[in-house]
Amino acid sequence: MEIFLAEKMGFCFGVRRTVDITMKIIENKEQNVITFGPIIHNEDLTNYLKNNGVNYVTSLDEVDPKKTKKVIIRTHGAKKEVIDNLKSMGINVIDGTCPYVMRVHRIVEKLSKENYPILIIGNKDHPEIIGVIGYIINDVPYFVVKNIEEVEQLKNEGKFEKLKKIGIVTQTTEKIDKVRKIVNYLMDFIPEVRYFKTICYATDENQGAIHKLAPMVDIVIVIGGKHSSNTIKLYEIAKSYCYRTYHIQNEKDLDIGWFNYNDKVGITAGASTPDWVIANVVEKIREFSEILRKGECHEVT
Ligand code: SF4
Question: For residue 152, what is the domain's CATH number?
Fold first, then answer.
């Protein structure tokens, strides 16, 4: 069996930065540290952190100031109010928010200070968007939309009628084609439209790499959380080239029955998959390769 790794896979810059911050804390054996929300969507990593004393909370009510020295803000960020409240409890806040997400915070803060109503293109329930909304000040109106249909609906309800201006930002994982449509649509009837390109292309690089790799191999293994949207996207792309594509969370999900002794195996991983999980998968496939090779030789002789 030959193993081929996608040129680009696994942690993006923002995730790596937050994970490194957290690992340093574990390395230094610091006590009473928690993260606000799971720092990334990956069970293996969350369990690792938990086993090493770094648990996560999902609300301020769960934070006990007497037992908490440091709180790490996760890659997706958090509302400004959350950070301010933690600080007022005397807790040391380590901001692990991805710098690209922080930029969105600064933009909406500035726009709302200048009284621009704000349109956010993204998923209103996603932690990144919940955090972004938390930076809107001055009670300016804001709207969160997933697609052009939702914008049209708002228009039909008269929500944009009196608007002379609007500021637009997007969730970092949005697709440019969709955003273009929405911006163009609003430009038709709102006199001043200020659009800020806040899309991050880090996950696109992983997708580009699997477009290249999948057609060249016999089987593709996609590693990542079952609910990780960028991992599911990688799976869909790989599957469109290679019907023997499997989505696994870690090496324990691998099945030797999927492989032939002479397969070319392609491997990719979602943006929240730790390097050690990838390494374990590679190791396990090497073991399978050895078992299948011996089996094949035995048959031949
Ligand atoms: S995908 Fe982009 S915005 Fe999101 S954490 Fe990674 S680098 Fe930051």
Answer: 3.40.1010.20
